[in-house]
Amino acid sequence: METPEEARVRLPQLRLDELLDELQVRLDVARGTRDRVHSLLEAVLSVGRELDLEQALRSIVEAAALLVDAEYAALGVIGPDGRRLSAFHTVGVSEEQIARIGPYPEGHGILGELIHHPEPLRLAKISEHEASYGFPAHHPPMNTFLGVPIRVRDQVFGNLYLTEKRGGAQFDEDDVSVTLTLAVAAGVAIDNARLYEESRLRERWLRANAEVTHSLMSGSERAEVLALIAERAGEITGSALAAVSVPMEDTGALAVEIAVGMDAEAHRGLVLAMDKSLMGLAFSGAVPVTSADVTHDERISLEPPRFGGLGPAVAVPIGTGDPGPRGVVLLARKAGQPVFSATETETLQSFAAQAAVAMELAERRQDAEAVAVLMDRDRIARDLHDLAIQRLFATGMTLQSAGRFIEHGEAAERVARAVDDLDETIKIIRSTIFGLRTREGAGETGLRARAVRVVGEAAPVLGFAPGVRMEGLLDTDVPKDIADHVVAVLSEALTNIARHARANRADVLLATDGREVRLSVTDNGVGIPADGRRSGLRNMAERAEQQGGRLELRTPEGGGTTLVWRVPARKP
């Protein structure tokens, strides 16, 4: 039996063991807290080191999952509308699982709850929340949930979503505190990454502006400069298609001169109406015009099909001052990619405005050079008139006078012929003087404008506006006499469609490669009957044969008629 003395010795020993156990627990908690704080500091430093935005977002998700021991983690970026997710970064789900699950969430259910109420949300079971409506097929099971918002300069940038705490445990208040602390650091890191990205973007735009200006001032052709504008704007904005159109004189239409990227051939050479195209609206209004989905925009004509696979688009005028825009640059991204933000549009507008200034300066320099050439021509013409012609005329008069004193008949005849040759030479020089003092091609209208005018005049008779595409240097490589034939054949072809084809669509292609001119007119009508009148076709064929060319008639797969008229492009 235990004595009282032994009992007194045992009781202090029991209390000491209890105190030591409690102290060990507290030490473990302190050590765990220290380790967690250390992990949090490491996570904050890791996130803060990233300057690339995409990589920073990835680091934030990975750090959050590690800090609260979550099996799955995601960061949803809220789109410009403030109601949906525009991007979704995940951890814990493989690429194969993502492919089976399908498209990333847009922000409905529990994810949308944080968008509408940006406060920490902790759930023991996701399915028990009133906003939950289940997961898509092939989605991994998830029960426990922790969500916190990420703010950047008092604006909600997105949300952190954490699910399935390992070991079957619940997310606790410490998890919420740690995640909120990480979210604050994430907001700073995202802001820094954005500022860095903006500075790099601004630097790229400045380099592009300098490149365009240098190209213009060094005397590059306009087509080369427009191509450079399209290429650089497309590269910087991550666009799949970049195109530049310019106004066609006296037609009220735009011609797409440059197109690079996705399905560029479908755009290059198109003639666009001002009220049925994104480019036309931007040009006529002298303001940027954006579209969230260019393939389903009611403002844009469906014909010809040219925007397959594309989505967000923006059209920005090149310059807006007097006498108006010099053209329009169109950029389009692939379907599903982010729309062009207000900041991107504003930056692009500044780039286009500076490009317009550079174009104007280059044109002024070219005008000055042209004036210098004209002045030089006037000087040459004046010298020819005042010196060469007068001397030739005096020589002719001297010979003519001397001829009366020549008794030898053959010698007198030779002197008379010399006088006649001098008269012809004087006429040639006078013709040259006239040519020097006259601007070549003044008052004439180019083939492009004439063709567009013919199509526009035919539209009321047809009942619809034909599609028009032009390719090559039509105003440069096609002589005026050939251009006259082209315009006549185009008018005849459209008239025939209006009279006989019963069509509701027609497409015109006018192209030259410098060696040949090709006019193609296609309709979806009833075709050419075997016993029909062919006087118009005969006239077109005779015109082609007279110029060493030919006329071809074809039947497209979908029915109708394709008329192809081609002749050599003989330069004057």
Q: Could you list the spans in which at least 5 consecutive residues all have pLDDT below 50?
A: 25-36, 439-444
Radius of gyration, rounded? 39 Å
Secondary-structure element string = HHEEHHEEEHHEEEHEEEHHHEHHEEHEE
Mean pLDDT score? 78
Tell me the number of strands: 16
Tally of helical runs = 13
Cα end-to-end separation: 134 Å
User: Which structural category do the helix and sheet elements fall into?
Assistant: alpha+beta
Assembly state (oligomeric) = single chain
Order of the strands making up the biggest sheet: 9-10-11-6-7-8-12-13-14-16-15
How would you explain this protein's 3D organization?
- This protein has 572 residues and is of the alpha+beta class.
- 51% of the residues lie in helices and 19% in strands.
- The chain is built from 13 helices and 16 strands.
- It has an eleven-stranded mixed sheet, sandwiched between helices. It has a five-stranded antiparallel sheet with strand order 2-1-5-4-3, sandwiched between helices.
- Helix 1 runs parallel beside helix 5, helix 2 runs antiparallel to helix 5 and helix 12 packs antiparallel against helix 13.
- The radius of gyration is 39 Å and the shape is elongated.
- The termini are far apart.
- About 3% of the residues have low confidence.
